[in-house]
Every structure is written in structure tokens, then in C-alpha cells.
Write a structure and sequence with these properties.
Order of helices and strands: HHHHHHHHHHHHHHHHHHH
Radius of gyration: 23 Å
Strand content: under 5%
Helix content: over 70%
Structural class: mainly alpha
Length: about 475
């Protein structure tokens, strides 16, 4: 009886959050920052055509700009998570905001593609990596019952900014050329610094540090601490690895329409503003998809992983239908499929992150999200250039979108191999592993845990 009470209390401590309060301010900060990260990233298709014409390079070579930026954002996410666990989330996000703006400002002075690879790709990508994971993990730690809705609201800005940014960027390019447009976007990105300032400093309990006789950290303790910051132990857990593989496959195809749909629309004969408006319209349904998906998920009628699989299957199908709908030159058909794709892509995004606490627990979200972004960075790096390469050898984007949709569907199939996938109820919340010596003393204290909750886990282990 005592054991069950301790177990129940431990699970609640690991899963419950304040469910609001200052958390809604953080949702607003996430709303603005994600619009200036992924909303901006989604709208770079406007610059794709300009870069092809100005630098006279292939579609594949230009595609590396956006792919390096996306891959850098995901690759550096573990660095952002580790810095947040070791130091201060507020300072990390503010630094990321500065770097994201700096990269775009420097990109406005580029004279060759390598300059764009380094500025828009590496520098801005590093900034985005320091912003995204910490903001998402901070918001998710502030909510429990309304977690999916809070994340959906925070991510809804991506669809809103996609609606606003595509025609805005087209206007800026026509008015100030692509250099002036990038300079303005860099100034906008500096607003992420203010979003980071809204994060309250956190108080964490720190593990006692082992030092040698000369007052230096021992190598084993240093490696253990780095492993703790990065949550490397998750790589030994099957549910996390399976989920990460599925999301990585999503990533191969998910961003292809945002980078190539405008170019495809112009290739089949639609005007510049017609092509830009297709992405804007998809951005509107993306907003509704994120909010509706988060709200419906929080009702608890279905497991979140099942809803995620539904939306990913539909998104994959609609990606494959995008080029088919425009083969006859019908703008209305292309617009309809784009609207449906926008809704499904927005709906699945909210749930990708809402599923993670059920796999690893809230207390390991920061490091777990960083590791996920690192692993899927390979897909972000290769997905769009693969699409550009298929366009170069076929002369159109039909094969590109077919391949992209196939990767999304394959990721959905991978999800079904997760443990307890076909169960109608959520499995028990996972518990953070705590290493205990044979004498019953703690080997180390994980960050974010109080000594009381750790003691309870030790008592359970001993019994």
C-alpha cells in the first residue's frame, strides 16, 4: 500500500505542471518566436526563385541554403538544451535571437552561394536551434491538462506568419530586391530577444560535484554530467528510438512543399502572386489545424499517438496530390489540395511534441527534444536537396512531391511499431532512471528533481 502511494506521488510529480499562470505569457513568447523561426523558414520559397535567377545555379544548389538552415537548427538543438540545463534558458534564447537576426543581416551582403550557406544556413540555423527547443520545452513544462492546446496555440503563429509573410516577402523583394528584403527580415528576427526575456530564471537543484585533490572535476563525473544534460540515456530506450525514427522520416518530406510549392506553381503557369497566395492560403488552414488538433487531443477521446498517425497519413497523401492537382492547369484544384495539406500539416505539428512527455516524461523534455532535433537534422539537410535533384533530372516537381509524401507515409507506418501502440489507453508515465549504489546511496542527482522525490524513488528501488 505504501509502495503504491509513493509510486503514484512520484508519477504525479513528474507529469503535473501549473497549467497556466505565467505559462500563457510563455505561450505568447513562443507564438512570436516560432513565427520568426519556422514561419520565416517556410516563406523562404519566395527567395528561391530570386536566388536561382541571380546566381544562375541549379535548383539543387539553391536548395542547400534552406536545408543547411533547417539542419543547423536541428543539429544545434542539443547544444541549446544542454546550455539550458547547465545555465539559464532566458540567456540561451536571447542569444539565439541575436544570432538568427545576425545571420540574415549578413546574408543580405552575400556575393556567392557559399556566403548564403554560412549566413542563412549556419549562423541563423544556430540561432534557431538555441531558440526552438528551449521555448517548446519551457511551455510544455508549464501545462498538463491543456498541454496540447498550449503547444497548438504557440505553433499557430507559423501558419499565420506563412499567410502574412509570403505576399509580404514578395512585396519586399519587388520593392527593395532580395538584399533589402533579407536586411529587413534580420531586423524582424531580433524581436526574438524580447521573447527570450519573458522566460523567468529557473531554480534547479545541482548535483554534488566530485573533485580530485587539486580541486578539478574528475573525467567520469564530467562525462556523467554532460550525459545528464543531453539525456543520452534516452538512446537506450526503444520507445524513444522508434518515435525518433518515425519523426525523422516525416522530416524528409514535411518541408518540401514549403520550399518548392511556389516554384512548382510558377512552373505550371501561375503568376508570382498567385503562387505566393497558395502558400498563404495553406498557412491559414495550418492555423486552424494546430488549434483544432490541440483542442481535440486534450479532450482525451483518443490517444495522442493515434491522432498523430491519422494526421501524418493524410498529410502524406495530400503532398503526393499537390502536383497531380495542377497537371491540368487548374488553380482551384491546386488551391483545394493546398488548403487540405495546410490543415493536416498544422494538426500533426502540435501532436509531434505533445506525444513526447508520454514517452520520456516532462522532466526529460529539454534534453530529449534536443536529441530528437539532432537525429532528424540529417533528414532536414537531405530532404529538400533530394527534391531539387529530382526536379533537375525530371524537369518538373512531380517526382519530388511523390517522394516527399512517401517519406511521410513511411514515418506513419514506423509509428505503429511503438510499444503499446495498439492499446486504447496511455501506458504509465515513464520515470527518470536514478542510479543507486549497492549501499543504497545516490550515485548522482539528476537536474530538476527535489531531494524528496529522489528519496522516494530510492525507497521504491530498495523495496
Amino acid at each position: 500500500m505504501t509502495n503504491s502511494k509513493l509510486k503514484s506521488k512520484s508519477q504525479v510529480d513528474g507529469a503535473e505542471g501549473p497549467d497556466g499562470g505565467w505559462g500563457w505569457v510563455l505561450v505568447l513568447a513562443m507564438f512570436v518566436s516560432t513565427s520568426l523561426v519556422f514561419g520565416l523558414m517556410r516563406s523562404l520559397g519566395i527567395f528561391f526563385v530570386e536566388f536561382v535567377q541571380y546566381f544562375e545555379e541549379s535548383a539543387q544548389a539553391i536548395s542547400w541554403i534552406s536545408s543547411i538552415g533547417l539542419a543547423a537548427q536541428q543539429f544545434f538543438s542539443p547544444l541549446g538544451a544542454a546550455l539550458c540545463n547547465a545555465y539559464n534558458t532566458r540567456q540561451v534564447v536571447m542569444t539565439g535571437g541575436f544570432l538568427s537576426g545576425l545571420g540574415l543581416v549578413l546574408a543580405s551582403q552575400a556575393t556567392c552561394l557559399v556566403h548564403l550557406y554560412l549566413t542563412m544556413g549556419v549562423i541563423s540555423g544556430l540561432g534557431w536551434g538555441l531558440v526552438f527547443s528551449p521555448m517548446v520545452a519551457t511551455v510544455m513544462a508549464s501545462f498538463t491538462r491543456r498541454r496540447a492546446l498550449a503547444v497548438g496555440l504557440g505553433f499557430s503563429s507559423i501558419g499565420l506568419s506563412s499567410f502574412a509573410f509570403n505576399p509580404l516577402f514578395q512585396l519586399l523583394v519587388e520593392t527593395y530586391a532580395w538584399r533589402g528584403a533579407l536586411l529587413i527580415l534580420g531586423g524582424l528576427s531580433f524581436n526574438i530577444i524580447a521573447c527570450g526575456a519573458l522566460i523567468r530564471p529557473e531554480c534547479r537543484s545541482r548535483a554534488p560535484v566530485k573533485v580530485d585533490s587539486q580541486g578539478r572535476l574528475s573525467l567520469s563525473d564530467m562525462l556523467q554530467r554532460v550525459s545528464s544534460y543531453l539525456e543520452v540515456s534516452l538512446l537506450c530506450e526503444r520507445p524513444y528510438l522508434t518515435y525518433t525514427l518515425g519523426v525523422t522520416l516525416f522530416n524528409f518530406g514535411y518541408f518540401v512543399p514549403y520550399f518548392h510549392l511556389v516554384a512548382h506553381s510558377r512552373q505550371v503557369g501561375f503568376s508570382e502572386y498567385q503562387a505566393a497566395f497558395i502558400m498563404s492560403a495553406a498557412g491559414v488552414t495550418d492555423i486552424f489545424g494546430r488549434i483544432v488538433s490541440g483542442w481535440f487531443s486534450d479532450l482525451g477521446h483518443f490517444r495522442v499517438i493515434h491522432l498523430l498517425t491519422l494526421w501524418t497519413v493524410l498529410a502524406g497523401v495530400f503532398i503526393m496530390l499537390l502536383p497531380v492537382s495542377s497537371l491540368a492547369g487548374s488553380y482551384a484544384a491546386l488551391m483545394m489540395i493546398s488548403l487540405l495539406y495546410g490543415f493536416c500539416s498544422g494538426a500533426l505539428t502540435s501532436l509531434v511534441f505533445a506525444v513526447m512527455p508520454t514517452i520520456m516524461g516532462v522532466e526529460r523534455m529539454m534534453g530529449g527534444l534536443g536529441l530528437l532535433q539532432l537525429i532528424e537534422s540529417s533528414a532536414g539537410l537531405l530532404g529538400t536537396p533530394l527534391s531539387g535533384w529530382l526536379r533537375d533530372i525530371t524537369g518538373n516537381y512531380v517526382a519530388s512531391f511523390m517522394a516527399a509524401g512517401s517519406f511521410v507515409l513511411l514515418g506513419s507506418l514506423t509509428m505503429t511499431t511503438m510499444p503499446h501502440y495498439f492499446s486504447c489507453t496511455e501506458p504509465p508515465p515513464p520515470q527518470r532512471p536514478v542510479l543507486v549504489h549497492s549501499a543504497g546511496t545516490l550515485e548522482h542527482l539528476e537536474l530538476g528533481h527535489s531531494s524528496e522525490s529522489i528519496h522516494q524513488t530510492v525507497v521504491q528501488a530498495e523495496r
